[in-house]
Amino acid sequence: MFCIGIFGVLTRRNAIGILMSIELMFNAVNINFVAFSKFVTPTDFVGQIFAIFVITIAAAEATVGLAIVLLIYRNFKGINVDNINIMKW
Amino acid sequence: MVVSLKNIFHCALFLVLCFFGIAGVYILLSAEFLAAVQVLIYVGAITILMIFAIMLTAKLYNAKIRQSNEQIFPGLIIVAALLVATIFTLSRTAWKLSYEVAEVQSTVGIGKLLLTKYVLPFEVVSVVLLTALIGAIIIARRE
Fold this sequence. Notes:
The complex is a heterodimer. By secondary structure, chain A is mainly α.
């Protein structure tokens, strides 16, 4: 699933698609945390707590990312990342 | 499906399906609190945010726009290499498994740990979330 997410990040032209792929990658990492927490140290819940922190940071990242996407859309009239090249020269 | 469909809106809907599946995996791993959080935050909040953004940046409904760029084959190669490396590592490592059963429910344990041992990261993460919200509002505000 992490690989699917990376594939999406590499091949999407749409910025929102890239954000969705990043969410997929976050979820893959979370499943890993919870699974290792379950099978390696089942008596303490450190993995699950870490997964909660990851979810929180993912939510923050999604809000900021979507705000940036809206700003880009307003300035460039489109959200295809290969049209946005003003940082490149 | 999420990364390959032509219509970005369908991608968002499949993302909802995927998040529900992940919540099911959490329940199978006996992490009920995380499953609830997953449904609330991902399905309830993040996907709605995505759909809002898609609608605000519209013009994508005709779905004839090509969604992927020219990097499909290099991307496939990199991803296949990473997958092979991951599977190799997973199959070669001897994990130290433990078969003890937790004596409390996961929700109880998480609550106790979050407010005793991990209270500092908890507070820091709430400050981060607040900062992100304010930042997003400032970024997206019209001049």
